[in-house]
UniProtKB/TrEMBL annotation:
This is SH3b domain-containing protein. InterPro entries: SH3-like_bac-type. Gene3D superfamilies: SH3 Domains. It holds the Pfam family SH3_3. Residues 21-87 form the SH3b domain.
């Protein structure tokens, strides 16, 4: 795993392991969440095909990043890895 210099560690959530920044695509409609888990509040829905730029992870089940396309473009939050694929 390598780190990228485009995001500072200070801007990432606590205990979030910075990973190589890449863009993934939602495989179906999925919640953008406030934290890494289904128990966290939904910040919006990413529709199928929405692009999501990955910044870090805490457990390799959830990615933290920024929405690049769609209705929630520009929002930051957490998405389950199960609903993302490489673009």
């Amino acid at each position: 795993m390598s780190t990228a210099s485009t995001a500072s560690a200070a801007s990432l959530p606590k205990d979030c392991l910075e990973i190589y920044h890449n863009t993934k695509k939602a495989t179906e409609a999925v919640n953008l969440r406030k934290g890494p888990g289904r128990n966290y509040t939904s910040l919006g829905i990413l529709s199928k095909g929405t692009r999501f730029r990955v910044n870090c992870t805490t457990d390799f089940y959830w990615y933290y990043g920024k929405v690049e396309t769609g209705a929630n473009k520009g929002r930051k939050g957490w998405v389950s890895i199960a609903y993302l694929k490489n673009t």
